[in-house]
């Protein structure tokens, strides 16, 4: 029996498993498919909330801690596994922002590097950007990471840790409960028990907790994205405009995203979204009209009230915790979310005040 059982092998589950194992704990990680193939694979990899001033301080605290940790994490994973997550520290432009005064006030209050720049700054760095804009907001420290490669590196890292048992293609059917204590889970491959169970199953977390008569307000929110097979240096920085963005990769590919659709667990792509995303892409970088669309896909984000994740013990039960509900910011918030939870599980002083993320007082009833 392991010290900990982590249910869900996305970036959150992988990072938490790694944190616990590096601290000396034994961990079993259970994933119903292949690790990091759901929202962790489907996202864009911007290491910042979109329009960060529009989020609460609870999200800002997690994001700030995580952003500073990614440089070390990416370098360490590359050295450990030989898989480079391709962290690009190029900054982000935000164009045509209506509430720029709020953005600048937020930056001053939280001491974040965000400034207003003139058109000359924008077009000097991104000459292919659509013409006619007079200014932008600039966040020079924002990075992007190639999330599929991050998932691959994390998976390899935990597989190489002797304290970790990885069970993929293993669907969780229900919790094993004795009185008010969760002992583990019943799966398609049999029961798995542990000293403590952590549910980090993204959009499916609320569904699983329903088996304990817990109503966790985490719901799937579909996002569709596309990638253009372009050339290097067409665009070099993340550009955000009208709620959508383009993200360059080192090999010249350029992602565009994303939609926000409340359709349950439906991951079907649509022609209307494809056309809308295409118009977004060429509206930001007109030259993308010269390049083919390589792929169009959809993923499910774990939506939560105000985008504030649930991190902590499940009220009314012993031996079970949750880490879910990061919504659009799973990759952004993952390092801090998992470090915070590891601190709580291991009895260490938390790196961040855990109270805003606790489940108590934030749950509904079935």
UniProtKB/TrEMBL annotation:
Keywords: Oxidoreductase, Thiamine biosynthesis
Protein name, entry field: Glycine oxidase ThiO
Pfam families per the UniProt record, alphabetical: DAO (PF01266)
One annotated GO molecular function: glycine oxidase activity
InterPro entries: FAD-dep_OxRdtase, FAD/NAD-bd_sf, Gly_oxidase_ThiO
Pathway as given in its UniProt record: Cofactor biosynthesis; thiamine diphosphate biosynthesis
Enzyme Commission number(s): 1.4.3.19
Residues forming coiled coils: none
Domain (FAD dependent oxidoreductase): residue spans on this chain: 3-344
SUPFAM superfamilies given in the database record: FAD-linked reductases, C-terminal domain (SSF54373), FAD/NAD(P)-binding domain (SSF51905)
NCBIfam families registered for this protein in UniProt: thiamin_ThiO (TIGR02352)
